[in-house]
Amino acid sequence: MHRLDVSDEEFRALSNQVSEFAARYLQQLPSMQTFPAEVSGGEVERLFDAELPVEGIGGKAFQSLNDIARTSRPNSPRFYGYVFGSGLPIGALGDFAASIVNPNVTAWRSSPSAVTIERTVVRWLAEAVGCRGFSGSLTGGGSSANLMALCMAREEKSPANELGSQGGIVYCSPEAHMSIAKAVRLLGLGQVAVHTIPTDARFRMRTDLLRQTILKDLREGHKPIAVVATAGTVATGSIDPIQEIASICRQHSLWLHVDGAYGALAAIAIPQKFTGLELADSVSLDPHKWLYQPAGCGCMLYRDPAAAQRAFAYSEDYVRTLSTDPIEGFAFFEESIELSRPFRALKVWLSLRYFGLRAFRESIAEDLRLAQLLAAEIESQAELELLAPVELSAVCFRCNDEGRDADELNRAVLKRVIQRGKVYISNATIRGVFALRACLVNHRSTEQDVRAITSEVLEALRDVRRDDAASK
Ligand SMILES: Cc1ncc(COP(=O)(O)O)c(C=O)c1O
Hints:
This protein is α/β, with parallel strands linked by helices. The protein has helices at 8-28, 41-48, 65-70, 89-101, 112-128, 142-157, 178-186, 207-219, 242-252, 287-290, 305-312, 345-355, 357-379, 406-420, 447-471; strands at 135-139, 169-172, 194-196, 224-230, 255-260, 282-285, 298-302, 384-386, 394-399, 426-430, 433-439.
């Protein structure tokens, strides 16, 4: 046996140990602190920042799993920060099996089943959100899907692959995710190429201003290339008017990308809010958010595979596929940034086959219902104030206290909520105001878990007031 192999017996023993660890962890998850408050930077460094081991310690290496779990922020049912899916155990088993089979999902010839499964999963996701006929690929997350989408947009509207950047303007609202401006910067267009279009009272891009800005830019000799509509903005979950934006894009021959990393999968439950999604040239959506998959699974959909090939196909002889068969000659590397690619699709494929789409539809609908419940709870409390309409499942609010700077007060409340460890929420800036923000994309959250948000915020508010009074 090779020194880097383990015997069958050892493999079974170690995998049983990992399964035991996983089952225990999942059992404890509902009652865990939402943030490991007692953990310090020093302790975590001491545990994990060790010297490079020249000699191995065998199975003892696995003993650190408990420390890793103890010092991690858990996917508890009361975690409502950012936009982070809850990690289905079925998906985790998919990741395990995927790593064992370890196919290179780069071209059909390197892994016929894994490539076919990924193409199937992409087709399923496209159909599930109303974009039947789109193709695409799975990515590391929404940021890379957005980068790839804007790379395609640039190559279609202002080709750069041969001669370098020829410039071009990308439009989005100020509510667009930071990965949009980052993508524009990475593509060499520069931050100056991001033209932001103000929003209406519901945080949606104003199409009248989009129209005006495009016309002004054209008059001034700029080259508009793309509009990014967001379907579920990261702060408030607002959805830009996709259909109207699509018609402006058509009129000016611009690429329409819809960043649905957070929201687009909600189209499975409430398609009526996503009218026009099918008119986009590209859409990003994140199974590791609202399809509850373990981290590392975004998806990029596009209408025209030839556009993906124009942007990404650049192959050396040694990888070129010789087959001209449309199935067997298919290569993801011709339509993506990546060459070697992991088997991301297995977790999604297993999860959808295990539970069926209906279960996901119902779970997403429940998250949406719980978000409305939370909004109603907030509105029923005199000390709390809702700061934005609840379009999807992000709820932005704050505490009011006459005579105290609201931003400062709410920062203190947030810090205290996190320290108390009963619920985890994050923050957002809403029209310049510091907001507390809870985002429900967690299949484990129950009504009781959601009611804990307001009770914990009010408790934290009392703690802060008590501390204030004591320090006077
Ligand atoms: C609207 C939107 N776009 C893009 C992203 C980035 O996704 P990822 O974290 O998967 O890169 C996020 C993350 O929250 C998001 O909410």
